[in-house]
Each structure stands twice: as structure tokens, then as C-alpha cells.
Design brief:
This protein has helices at residues 13-22, 33-42, 58-61, 82-88, 100-115, 118-126, 155-168, 181-187, 194-200, 220-225, 243-251, 291-309, and strands at residues 3-7, 23-27, 48-51, 69-72, 91-93, 148-151, 172-175, 190-191, 203-206, 231-234, 257-260, 280-282. With 327 residues, the chain is an alpha/beta fold. It has two domains: 3-96 and 291-323, 3-Layer(aba) Sandwich (Rossmann fold), CATH 3.40.50; 100-282, Rossmann fold (3-Layer(aba) Sandwich). Bound molecules: (2R)-2,3-dihydroxypropanoic acid. (2R)-2,3-dihydroxypropanoic acid binds at residues 74-76, 99, 287-288.
Length: 327
């Protein structure tokens, strides 16, 4: 008999057909509505779940007694309680690799946009306020040759380093759990303590996953170490930064600007002080959001789930390493 999959994110037709060839699929079109009412109704029959952007905690997952696998259409797994999943023997799979380059492109877009004041000055033109040649009051700062500081040298960190080193001639500094000699050789990169990186880099780019260790990693004390001409780029998760402290640092000119794709609360409230500041470029969590990459992520998630429900080891298993999977 086919396994039952609850899909809480829309798939393209070919991917839906692929999943349906292996499983009976229930689509929950608006999973957040009415305190997840539709999702809750579907969970008691679920062997597998596929979707993204919802915190699936014990309160919801206790409703799914026969659940064997969750396949998230994301690389980040901060929406899942992994010790809980381990206790229940539920496999969790994610979608690394396929989004690496696209997310690094987003990081670089934010570097360019903040340093060269692209959004602010494009708005000036659009609003009809470009009435004379611009002068120093509208100049930005260079990107090429400046020091790129990367916190979290995983796949996305490396893809940023590649762009900075080979494309823009930037000296690369990085901070991660431990030094990475291969990265140092490839990008002529220097390992630094967090404190040293914050005080030396012109661009401080966050690419770490959100965990109990990285939540609030960048707060008032850390921002105080950055130089007044430096710019913070966050393509990781909003909670890695203390947003209050960041707002204060930007308002007082402690740092030059920030390029932010992620926020403590998403969607960002329209009355956030971050949106009042010209030196902030805020984007709506677009890290991996291109047609090509989102389709590749969804394909990866479908393949992961099909494998897991067949009792095979999926290519991107996050937990239950070394344990038998329940087919
Ligand atoms: C990811 O894949 O984790 C992206 O940030 C989307 O959530």
C-alpha cells in the first residue's frame, strides 16, 4: 500500500506527479491558517511530511503517530526539534548544495547594494529627485579590494569567499568552529577569532546556521567591535543578530550599514526602524529564491522523502545517523 504524504508547500506539476507515483498525497494549501487547522486534520494519517517555513514542534507532531520522515525544502533545520525527532525515530532531510551558489549571490547582492547605496540612489532617481550631478554626499564605498569577513565557513561561506577572492580581489578572513586549511589555501584566507574578525573586516557576512550556540551571536558587544565604516550582511537567520542592538548601532553610526535578508520576526513588521534607515537594505528572505533553485530544492526534497519512506538512506539525512530508518 502507498504511504501517505502530507504536502504543506505547493510543488510544480512534474514534481507532484513524481511524488504521487510513490505516495498518496494530501495537499494542505494554507498550513498556517487558523492555528494550523488543516495541517492538524491531516497529520494523524501522515507517514511523511514535505514543506517549509513552518515550525513543526511537538505540539503538532504529536498529532502524527505514524510519522516516519520529514523532508524540508530548505537547508536550515531550525524549525525542527531534532532531539524530539530522534526520540521518535523520525528522519529529517534537508536540501543543501543546490542552493549554495544562489544564496551566495544574494549575499553579494547585499554587499554591492549596501556599499554602493544602490537601493537608496535608485529610489532617488525613481522619485524624480535626481536634479543635479551627485556629489560626495551620495558617494558609496568600494567593494573590490576591501576585506571580506565570513562568519561560518560552510558551503555558502566558501561560495562567498570564492566571489570575493576571485571576483573582487578581496582579502578574505573567516571564523568557524575550527580552522580550515583547504579554504585558506584556496582563497588565501585567514582564520580569526570572532572578535578579531569583527574588528578587521570591512564586510562582516553571517552564514552560520541558527542553533543554541549561534542565537544572539552578534549583540551589542560584538557590534561595538566593528569599525564605523564596516557593513553587516546577514543571510543566515535573523536570530543570529540581536536586532535591537543592531538598530542602535546603525542609528548611532557605530557601523556604516547593513544588508539584511533575514529578521528576528518574518515577515518584518512595516513599522520596523530598520525600514526608516537609508543605510539598510532589507530583502524578504530571498536567499535561495530563484525559479531554478527553488525547483531544484523541491526536487531534492521529493527525492529525499521517497528514499526515506522506502526505508533507504536519503542523500540528505540530517539526524538518525547510524540508525536504521523505519520504512
Ligand atoms: C534555507 O534553505 O534555509 C533558506 O534560508 C530558506 O529558508
Amino acid at each position: 500500500m502507498k504511504k501517505h504524504v502530507v504536502l504543506y508547500k505547493k510543488l510544480s506539476e512534474p514534481l507532484l506527479a513524481r511524488l504521487q507515483a510513490h505516495a498518496q498525497v494530501t495537499l494542505v494549501a494554507d498550513p498556517k491558517r487558523d492555528d494550523h487547522a488543516e495541517l492538524r486534520a491531516a497529520l494523524p494519517h501522515a507517514d511523511g511530511l514535505l514543506g517549509a517555513s513552518i515550525r513543526l514542534d511537538a505540539r503538532l507532531l504529536d498529532l502524527a503517530p505514524q510519522l516516519k520522515a520529514i523532508s524540508t525544502v530548505s537547508v536550515g533545520v531550525d524549525n525542527y526539534d531534532i532531539p524530539y525527532l530522534d526520540r521518535r525515530g523520525i528522519a529529517l532531510c534537508n536540501t543543501p548544495d543546490v542552493l549554495t551558489e544562489t544564496t551566495a549571490d544574494t549575499g553579494f547582492a547585499l554587499i554591492m547594494a549596501t556599499a554602493r547605496r544602490v537601493v537608496e540612489l535608485a529610489s532617488m532617481v525613481r522619485n524624480g529627485d535626481w536634479t543635479q550631478n551627485i556629489g560626495p554626499a551620495h558617494f558609496g564605498s568600494d567593494v573590490h579590494g576591501k576585506t571580506l569577513g565570513i562568519i561560518g565557513m560552510g558551503r555558502i561561506g566558501e561560495a562567498l569567499a570564492q566571489r570575493g577572492h576571485f571576483g573582487f580581489g578581496m582579502p578574505v578572513l573567516y571564523h568557524s568552529h575550527s580552522p580550515k586549511p583547504a579554504v585558506e589555501a584556496r582563497f588565501n584566507a585567514g582564520y580569526r577569532s570572532l572578535e578579531a574578525l569583527l574588528s578587521e573586516a570591512d564586510f562582516v557576512c553571517l552564514t552560520v546556521p541558527l542553533t543554541t550556540q549561534t542565537e544572539g551571536l552578534i549583540g551589542k558587544e560584538q557590534l561595538a567591535l566593528m569599525r564605523p565604516e564596516s557593513i553587516l550582511i546577514n543571510i543566515a537567520r535573523g536570530k543570529v543578530v540581536d536586532e535591537h542592538a543592531l538598530i542602535a548601532a546603525l542609528q548611532s553610526g557605530k557601523i556604516r550599514g547593513a544588508g539584511l535578508d533575514v529578521f528576528e520576526r518574518e515577515p518584518l513588521n512595516s513599522d520596523s526602524p530598520l525600514l526608516q534607515m537609508n543605510n539598510v537594505v532589507a530583502t524578504p528572505h530571498i536567499g535561495s529564491a530563484t525559479h531554478e533553485t527553488r525547483e531544484a530544492m523541491a526536487r531534492c526534497a521529493v527525492d529525499n522523502l521517497i528514499s526515506a519512506l522506502q526505508g533507504e538512506r536519503p542523500a540528505n539525512l540530517v539526524n538518525l545517523k547510524g540508525r536504521e530508518l523505519r520504512g
